[in-house]
C-alpha cells in the first residue's frame, strides 16, 4: 500500500457510519444512490437500473472512495486495461477481453473481429446444414470455458433454441452420460472448449465423447468436432480439422472468454444476431465504464460498496440472488469471475496485501432462496451484503400474477433487511426480532434479453477489475489453482510423498 492509499483508507475508517434508516432521512437518497446504463434497442432506450440506496454508501464514503480510487490510479489502470497494455504483470500479458467487443489496441480489435467473422461463418454454415443435420451440441469445457456458455445458453434459450446445447464440465462421467442420454449421436456435434487445450477434465471428456459417437455408428466422429481454443495448433494435433478450429487470443482470460469463440455454443443455440446483441450490451457498459469518472462510474461505485463491506465492515461473503429463473446460473458464473480474479494474498508487486481481498461470492435464485437461506440473512450473526437482480419484463407468458409475486418478494426482502422489526404481537420476543440495517443493492433490468445479459456480465467484469485496482492486486492470473493439479498428476504417476491421511484415502479407494 502506498502512503496515499493508506491515507485514503485511514480517512475512510474515520468516517461516521449512519444506519440505513438514518441515511434515508435524505429525501434525494434514492436518486443520488441510483444510476442507469442504457443502450438503444428496437423499441427505444433500454437498460439496467443500479440502486445502491439500501447500502451504507453515503456522500462522505463516496468522496472517500473517490480519493482511494485516485490514489490507486484507477484512471491510469483503466486506460491500461482498455488499451491492451500488459496489465497482467505476473504473466506478462494484456487482458484483452474488451477487444472482443471493440475496445482495445487496434490490432487486437481487428484480430477479434476477424476471428468472430470466422466463428459466424461456421455457425451459419451449421445452421444451413453444411455439416449435416445438427440438432444437439455437447459443449465440453470447464471453468471459464463452461460457466459463461452454460449461463448464456440457459438464460437465452427459453424462447429460441436453434440447437439443443448441453454443457458438460465435470470429469465425473455421470455428467457426460447425462448429456449422451439427452442427445441423438447421429445429429450431435461436439465442441471442445479449452483455452490451453490441455485441461485434463476437458480432454478426457472429449475423448469419451468421440468414442460415444464412434460406438453409436457415426462414421467420421472427428468430423463432428469443433475446437474453441487459444492453442489452435494443439487442437489440430489432437485431430480437429483446421476448418473447425475457432481460435481466440492468448490475451483473453478464461473467465473473460464468453465473448470470444468460447461463445460458439451461445451463437449456435440462439443465432448470430443474438450473440451480436450480447456483445452490443457489453459494449454499452464498456463505454460507460470508459467514459465516466468517480462515483458516476457505476462499475466503480459497485466496487466502492464491495470494499466498504469487506474491509470496513468485515463481511466475509457477499450474496447475489437473481429473482429470475433465467439467471439461476449467474451466481455460479460470478463465483469464478470474482473469486478466481480477486481471491489473492499478494499485490501486483508481490507484497502481502494488508487487508481482506475478495469476499466469498454465493447466492441463488429468488424466491427459492427465501425459503432456504434467507433466515441467516435476516437474523444470523453475519452481515451479508446482498445484490438482488430482477427484470421488469417477465420471462414467462403465464398469468402476470407470477411475475408480480416474484418482483414484490424481491423488493420486500430488501425492504425487510433494511427496516428490521419484531414479528411478535407484543413486539418483544427476541426470537422474532429482526435487527435490520442489513444492506442490499438492487439491479433492475428493463428486460432480460441478450443485450442485457451481455451488459450484466460486462458490468461484473469491470466491477471485479475496479475492486482489484482498489486493492492493488492483479485480477488476471490464477496461480492458486495449480498446486492441487500438480499433486493430482503426481498421484496419478505414482510420484510424490504425501501425508498419511492422503495415502490412507488413496489406499482405501484402490488408488494407492
Ligand atoms: O484451473 C483453472 C482454470 O485454468 C481456469 O482459469 C480456466 O477457466 C479453466 O481452468 C479451464 O481452462 P482451459 O480453458 O484452458 O481448459
Automatic annotation (TrEMBL):
Pfam families: PGI. It is found in: Cytoplasm. NCBIfam families: PRK00179.1. GO terms for cellular component: cytosol. The gene is pgi. This is Glucose-6-phosphate isomerase. Its EC number is 5.3.1.9. Belongs to the GPI family. It is an enzyme of class 5 (isomerase). It catalyses: alpha-D-glucose 6-phosphate = beta-D-fructose 6-phosphate. One of its GO terms (biological process) is glycolytic process. InterPro entries: G6P_Isomerase, G6P_Isomerase_C, Phosphoglucose_isomerase_CS, SIS_dom_sf, SIS_PGI_1, SIS_PGI_2. The active site is at residues 340, 371, 485.
Amino acid at each position: 500500500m502506498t502512503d496515499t492509499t493508506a491515507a485514503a483508507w485511514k480517512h475512510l475508517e474515520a468516517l461516521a457510519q449512519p444506519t440505513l434508516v438514518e441515511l434515508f432521512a435524505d429525501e434525494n437518497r434514492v436518486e443520488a444512490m441510483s444510476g442507469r446504463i442504457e443502450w438503444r434497442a428496437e423499441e427505444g432506450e433500454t437498460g439496467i437500473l443500479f440502486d445502491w440506496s439500501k447500502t451504507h454508501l453515503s456522500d462522505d464514503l463516496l468522496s472517500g472512495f473517490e480519493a482511494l480510487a485516485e490514489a490507486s490510479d484507477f484512471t491510469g489502470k483503466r486506460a491500461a486495461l482498455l488499451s491492451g497494455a500488459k496489465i497482467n504483470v505476473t504473466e506478462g500479458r494484456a487482458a484483452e477481453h474488451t477487444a472482443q467487443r471493440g475496445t482495445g489496441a487496434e490490432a487486437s480489435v481487428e484480430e477479434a473481429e476477424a476471428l468472430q467473422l470466422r466463428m459466424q461463418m461456421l455457425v451459419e454454415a451449421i445452421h444451413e446444414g453444411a455439416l449435416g443435420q445438427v440438432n444437439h451440441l455437447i459443449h465440453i469445457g470447464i471453468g471459464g470455458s463452461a460457466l459463461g456458455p452454460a449461463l448464456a445458453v440457459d438464460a437465452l434459450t427459453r424462447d429460441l433454441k436453434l440447437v439443443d446445447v448441453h454443457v458438460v464440465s465435470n470429469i465425473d462421467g455421470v455428467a457426460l452420460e447425462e448429456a449422451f442420454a439427452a442427445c441423438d449421436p447421429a445429429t450431435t456435434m461436439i465442441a471442445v472448449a479449452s483455452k490451453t487445450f490441455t485441461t485434463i477434465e476437458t480432454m478426457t471428456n472429449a475423448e469419451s465423447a468421440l468414442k460415444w459417437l464412434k460406438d453409436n455408428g457415426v462414421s467420421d466422429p472427428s468430423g463432428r468436432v469443433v475446437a474453441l481454443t487459444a492453442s489452435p495448433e494443439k487442437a489440430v494435433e489432437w485431430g480437429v480439422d483446421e476448418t473447425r478450429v475457432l481460435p481466440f487470443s492468448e490475451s483473453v482470460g478464461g473467465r473473460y472468454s464468453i465473448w470470444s469463440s468460447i461463445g460458439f455454443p451461445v451463437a449456435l443455440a440462439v443465432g448470430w444476431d443474438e450473440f451480436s446483441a450480447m456483445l452490443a450490451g457489453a459494449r454499452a457498459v464498456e463505454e460507460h465504464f470508459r467514459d465516466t469518472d468517480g462515483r458516476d462510474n457505476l462499475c466503480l461505485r459497485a466496487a466502492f460498496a464491495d470494499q466498504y463491506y469487506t474491509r470496513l465492515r468485515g463481511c466475509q461473503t457477499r450474496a447475489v440472488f437473481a429473482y429470475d429463473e433465467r439467471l439461476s446460473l449467474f451466481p455460479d458464473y460470478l463465483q469464478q469471475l470474482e473469486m478466481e480474479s480477486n481471491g489473492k494474498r499478494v499485490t501486483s508487486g508481490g507484497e502481502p496485501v494488508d487487508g481482506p481481498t475478495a469476499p466469498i461470492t454465493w447466492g441463488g435464485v429468488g424466491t427459492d432462496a427465501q425459503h432456504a437461506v434467507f433466515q441467516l440473512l435476516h437474523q444470523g450473526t453475519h452481515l451479508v451484503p446482498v445484490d438482488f437482480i430482477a427484470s421488469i419484463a417477465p420471462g414467462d407468458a403465464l398469468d402476470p400474477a407470477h411475475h408480480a409475486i416474484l418482483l414484490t418478494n424481491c423488493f420486500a426482502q430488501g425492504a425487510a433487511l433494511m427496516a428490521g422489526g419484531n414479528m411478535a404481537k407484543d413486539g418483544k420476543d427476541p426470537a422474532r426480532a429482526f435487527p435490520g440495517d442489513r444492506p442490499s443493492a438492487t439491479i433492475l433490468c428493463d428486460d432480460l434479453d441478450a443485450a442485457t445479459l451481455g451488459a450484466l456480465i460486462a458490468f461484473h467484469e469491470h466491477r471485479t477489475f475496479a475492486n482489484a485496482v482498489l486493492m492493488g492486486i492483479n485480477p488476471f492470473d490464477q496461480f492458486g489453482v495449480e498446486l492441487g493439479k500438480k499433486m493430482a498428476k503426481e498421484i496419478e504417476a505414482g510420484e510424490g510423498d504425501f501425508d498419511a491421511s492422503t495415502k490412507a484415502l488413496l489406499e482405501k479407494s484402490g488408488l494407492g
